[in-house]
């Protein structure tokens, strides 16, 4: 490879007047093709260019290199001594250009492994992957909980991650409310309604926090509200999984803390919280600045949809 680079430097240095008009690589490709077939007609066909284009490129290369590459006659085309001396370097330059093009294509198609929240709906994630392809970006999605996404990013097991951050610090904001199996009688749900009277013997209603919201900027305000209202500690609980949390809402009067989109996916009835303005916040972080930029800019709307962002 080093020899190829040095040979390429020799050819380029020999073209002091090089400009956009003269494409050294294209001209060398025509030169190599014609020399290999000893024919402008056959060589041009092998290079997939018209014969007239091959002739113009080789003539331009001869002018800039300062010597004839071929002896032309009505019957044959043969290399001049000057052409024979330059042919190995020209061939290496063409091979180097092909290697560069192949490496660029491979790098462009290298999947961007992106850690995403497990709560994202499969259909929305499929749309995100499809949208990325329109931007020549191949996504390899890795669903994970908030702490797992942080670790995946830290350990460089993903190229980028959608991390949970306070809502006012993120690029995407997902409002949270409470969802129930029965239609709530009010347009908002107040946590204080979970307080039971002394004569109430039924099990006390609970708010279930799913793992995605087991982060300080979501969990802590809700537990502080619980304590301020005098609710029992177990009336605001973190479930082991999203499905366990949703199952509690299905099978009782318990409430699920979730986004409006999640409530719709589960067939639950969603209302905003009366006492708090809770929201998930997300930001895209990556080891390479361009990876983060592509997620933030090229895929901003599709990421917002997959998160259920406002």
Automatic annotation (TrEMBL):
One of its GO terms (molecular function) is DNA-binding transcription factor activity. Residues 29-80 form the HTH lysR-type domain. InterPro entries: LysR_HTH_N (IPR000847), WH-like_DNA-bd_sf (IPR036388), WH_DNA-bd_sf (IPR036390). Keywords: Transcription, Transcription regulation. The keyword Transport does not apply. SUPFAM superfamilies: Winged helix' DNA-binding domain. The keyword Transcription applies. Belongs to the LysR transcriptional regulatory family. This is LysR family transcriptional regulator.
